[in-house]
């Protein structure tokens, strides 16, 4: 049976799930999205993703035509309709079809699209060996131009950096901000460990405030580890004992080299390994009990 896609409140076979070529999501990258994981048939940290989606939409003056509880119910509906056990939900809101031109008044009917499918992940072996990363020359979008906190359909900034990483044979690319500080990788947040303390750039370093990032901060603090949100430069990564990345697709993935410098002894460190294990345990539990409201 064909995959069913939720579009504007209806489930349709994926071949019939379509948007207009006049949609401003396509024409201008005008829209927002979320990428969410499904573990054991349950949508992981759904409430956090839904909250961020509405915040992104608010920031670009896009009114999502359904309310958050309804949207959450639709996400669950499409996961069930596809009998998805472990998989991926892509929630996309576009500005909708309209006339040519940037004016948002030239559009009507934002499109609400929910795809539940499988996703290609890093091979299991990468979690044992760790990722090699290079710094991209493409800096992260300046927050004064387009805030990286908005998860918008405009991913060219990250794609251009990702190309640099791929060309260099690296698994990810590190992006700096306009101040030369560490921001994040193209689709993951970054953390370093030194002398038992975990550090990660603050949101005002110009990053996406990752749902996985926030979950890992909480897990680390629950384990009694100090976590500081503080500006970092590349030197902090070069001299770190351990480094890891977090993201919906990557979960917690060790990073063992930056720009040809080995981090620590060049293998995934103990704090990284413990956090990956406790993160996976959290996915099996389906999240924290106090986040069960959707
Ligand atoms: N930074 C950036 C720029 C991202 O795009 C993250 C950090 C990690 O955030 P989360 O909330 O996932 O912990 C991301 C996440 C996709 C896809 O389909 C992209 C992401 C996540 C899931 C799927 O390309 N990016």
Largest sheet, strands/sense/barrel: 9 strands, mixed
Global outline: globular
Q: Got a strand count?
A: 15
What is the count of DSSP helices, taking H or I runs of 4+ residues? 8
- Which ions, cofactors or small ligands are bound in this entry? 3-[O-phosphonopyridoxyl]--amino-benzoic acid
Strand residue percentage: 25-35%
List the keywords.
2 domains; D-amino Acid Aminotransferase, Chain A, domain 2; binds 3-[O-phosphonopyridoxyl]--amino-benzoic acid; 29% helix; D-amino Acid Aminotransferase, Chain A, domain 1; 6-stranded antiparallel β-sheet; alpha+beta; 8 helices; 294 residues; single chain; 9-stranded mixed β-sheet
Would you mind describing this structure in some detail?
By secondary structure, this protein is an alpha+beta fold. The protein is built from 8 helices and 15 strands. The strands form 2 sheets. Strands 7, 8, 9, 10, 11, 12, 13, 14 and 15 form a 9-stranded mixed sheet that branches. The structure holds 3-[O-phosphonopyridoxyl]--amino-benzoic acid. 3-[O-phosphonopyridoxyl]--amino-benzoic acid binds next to helix 6 and strand 13.
Explain the layout of strands and helices:
Layout: E1 4-7, E2 10-13, H1 24-28, E3 31-39, E4 42-43, H2 46-59, H3 68-81, E5 87-94, E6 111-117, H4 124-129, E7 131-135, H5 156-167, E8 172-176, E9 182-185, E10 189-194, E11 197-200, H6 211-222, E12 227-229, H7 234-238, E13 242-247, E14 251-258, E15 261-262, H8 270-285
Parallel strand pairs: 7-8, 7-14, 11-12
Antiparallel strand pairs: 1-2, 1-6, 3-4, 3-5, 5-6, 8-9, 10-11, 10-13, 13-14, 14-15
Bound molecules: 3-[O-phosphonopyridoxyl]--amino-benzoic acid.
